[in-house]
Amino acid sequence: MDITSTISLLLVFIITCILFVSRKRPRGNLPPGPTPLPFIGNMHQVKMNDLIKSLVDLSKTYGPMYTFYLGSRPTVVLCGYQVLKEALIDYAEEFSGRGEFPAVQINGFLISRWRQLRRFAITTLKNFGMGKRSLEERVQEEAQYLIEEFRTRKPFDPTFGFSSAGSNIICSLVFGDRFDYRDEEFLTLLYLINNNWHLMSSTWGQLLFVFPKIMQHVPGPHRKIYKNYVKLGAFVAKRLQMNKETLDPSNPRDFIDCFLIKVEQVCTLKHGRPRGSCSTFIKMYQSSVQK
């Protein structure tokens, strides 16, 4: 048998094994979808640089709800208003869980109680405008700063302006105050956030999401995602410490104050410890972002 025949038989054998393994892959109660291949799943059927459009195109063949394998990870894809409404509104509780997201799991520090945190966040944010200023007043105030920036700073990129204004409204809720548009710390925060979204939507970022254990050891621009989140975490840890030192439980100023108060309440209920005993939470977070 010559080498050409040997290679041909080997290829037939490999293809047969791939088809056999992929068809035997258990799907459980997952909806039908394209047949995945071992290791790469259905990634060969999409364009990594235009993933959303590729998934929408597949829905024309497999329907508005189908199973798509990101590597070895099964993912249910929902396409279209009606199926999204049914899932996220009619069956909101069943779809309230969250899967792993490797790009934001820094140094193993991961808060797993997603539902409790989500419930707390929604309740707290609804209460802002509690107290002195409503959310509407914050938006109106920031709009005046933005108008003044357009007037005095020429040329001025409107994309940067609107992004900064929206970010400042969030900062006023979370940190209790806004930043000047020229503030170096604020500009660094915007850069880190925007840069991470750009990296996560790139091909490198998509590969990190699909093959996290492999890509964590592969050099490339995706490794900067972790470094950016560490810098963001360091900023949040500093603000946590600042709020803790000036905390007045009877007059919460922002989201961080409410969070610190809630942590103390939970610890007191669970362990019967006096207020201030759960400051180890801040130390744990600070150590996690400094590793």
UniProtKB/TrEMBL annotation:
The keyword Manganese does not apply. Pfam families: p450 (PF00067). The chain crosses the membrane at residues 6-22. The keyword Acetylation does not apply. One of its GO terms (biological process) is xenobiotic metabolic process. GO terms for molecular function: arachidonate epoxygenase activity; heme binding; iron ion binding; oxidoreductase activity, acting on paired donors, with incorporation or reduction of molecular oxygen, reduced flavin or flavoprotein as one donor, and incorporation of one atom of oxygen. It is found in: Endoplasmic reticulum membrane; Microsome membrane. Its main location: endoplasmic reticulum. Keywords: Endoplasmic reticulum, Heme, Iron, Membrane, Metal-binding, Microsome, Monooxygenase, Oxidoreductase, Transmembrane, Transmembrane helix. Its cofactor is heme. One of its GO terms (cellular component) is endoplasmic reticulum membrane. It is a peripheral membrane protein. InterPro entries: Cyt_P450, Cyt_P450_E_grp-I, Cyt_P450_sf, Cytochrome_P450_fam2. Belongs to the cytochrome P450 family. This is Cytochrome P450. It comes from Leptobrachium leishanense. The lineage of its organism: Eukaryota, Metazoa, Chordata, Craniata, Vertebrata.
